[in-house]
Amino acid sequence: MMDSVVGDDCHGEDFTVNELQDLAAQMMGKESALFVPSGTMSNNVAIMTHARHGDTAIVDAESHIYYYESAAISGLAGVMPIVVDHPTGCPDPEQITYYLQRNRNRFPKTSLLCLETTHNRRGGRPITLDRIKTVCQLAHQHQTSVHLDGARIFNAAEALGVSVKSITEHADSVSFCLSKGLSAPVGSILVGSNDFIQQAMQVRRRLGGGMRQSGVIAAAGIVALTKMVERLSEDHVHAQLIAKHLAEIEELELEPSHFPTNIVVFNSHKVGIAAPEFVEKARKKGVKLSYFDTQQVRIVTNSDADQESIMHAIDILVRLINQTKNTSN
Ligand SMILES: *Cc1c(COP(=O)(O)O)cnc(C)c1O
Fold first, then answer.
1. Nearest 10 degrees: CA dihedral of 235, 276, 117, 242?
2. Whose CA is nearest to atom 3 of ligand 1?
């Protein structure tokens, strides 16, 4: 990062940002890429580029776009979300056909279908290739674009045992995080066609996402893409270790195969404690977790935790759960 060759990215002159964008576009199998400060901005640049005020976009009820982005889809993009709930996080064709084929003289235009893989709030689950292909083709038949929130797309590819390109090829735009599992301190990437990214650059500017010597942070993004992708499987192995140990606690009724990537979720109510309270107890013992709601505790593995620390964390968590179980009985 200290040695990166920088320039003014607002003029397209930052060498390191350009290098990162070229690398990302090539890895994703798309014409162009745009470096953005966050995944949230990346999603909203995509939505504002694909859709106009007054349009609608189909989103999953538990998606990041709907759940975590402070209503940007409506507040910034002026787009009305059509919320669809499916346990896989990816809608069934039957759930969305009606909205796609509605008469555009009488109903708002459905410009966009948003998908998410792996799906955070649904346990880090990847959408299968078949399913992505089917819904993307359906959307395209109705002149609806597809934006894929692939914040953890490399985790999805790893879990499915497929190339990233075989996932991205069906979507018009894809966003992914250089931070999180790939371990860069800052940044996300949006990819799509040349035309799309050119327009997206204007939208990024409008949102204040144009940066100057951002090669300093883009340099870490290059490390993320060249050095950190291969080791994601370790995170998956670690998550499985955690899931298998938690599955031994019968009350949790946890099925390890439901957590094929780096996220494990369990319901702490089943052992008589609210999720925020459990998270606080674990934090005091040195294990950092988060929660989705009052019941669901979320555990994420990453490159900071090697197998030894994972085993140590499992030990602490299992003890804590057994303690709460016994006191609540
Ligand atoms: C983290 C995340 C984002 C947004 O990333 P930020 O950089 O935190 O804004 C978007 N989508 C999903 C699925 C995520 O997990």
1. 30
2. 39
Helix/strand/coil percentages in the chain, nearest 5: 50, 15, 35
d(CA 263, CA 241): 11
For the entire predicted model, the pTM comes to 0.97
Residue-wise pLDDT tens digits, 24-71: 999 999 999 999 999 999 999 999 999 999 999 999 999 999 999 999
Burial of 316 (0-12, 13-18, 19+ CB in 10 A): middle
Nearest to 157 by CA among 236, 249, 52: 236
- Ligand 1 neighbours, Cβ below 6 Å, are 38-40, 43, 64, 116, 120, 149, 151, 177, 188
DSSP codes joined into one string, 57-103:
EEEETT-HHHHSSTTHHHHTT--EEEEE--TTSS--HHHHHHHHHS-
Residue pointed to by tokens 């003029």: 11
CB 214 within 8 A of CB 48: no
